[in-house]
Specification:
- The protein is built from 2 helices and no strands.
- It is mainly α.
- The protein has one domain.
- The chain is rod-shaped, with a radius of gyration of 34 Å.
- The N and C termini lie far apart (95 Å).
């Protein structure tokens, strides 16, 4: 009968060891998941900043193209596009003024 108890103790000890190991693996996995979530959040913020910077640079590029078009009268296409851009900006300003008046 004592032999059976030793076997049971051995099986219980092995089971306890495996459960402890499983718990450690689970906790490590949770830590990794949390680290990855933080990294995702940081990257999302970084992406947002880069998108804003990209939009700002696009606007600067448009403005530079307009300025170039206005300065070089020889290029009819650039001049025409600059005039179209100015007209679009004037319409946007008119809309803003109309909204402010309401």
């Amino acid at each position: 009968m004592a032999e059976k108890t030793e076997k049971e103790d051995s099986v219980l000890n092995e089971l306890k060891f495996k459960v402890d190991r499983l718990i450690k693996l689970y906790r490590n996995s949770l830590e990794v998941i949390n680290e990855q979530k933080e990294k995702i959040e940081e990257l999302s913020v970084s992406i947002g900043n880069l998108e804003a910077q990209n939009a700002e640079l696009d606007e600067k590029l448009k403005n530079a193209k307009i300025a170039t078009g206005l300065m070089s009268e020889n290029k009819d296409d650039n001049s025409r596009q600059a005039k179209l851009q100015i007209n679009r900006l004037v319409r946007e300003i008119d809309k803003c003024i109309a909204l402010l008046n309401n």
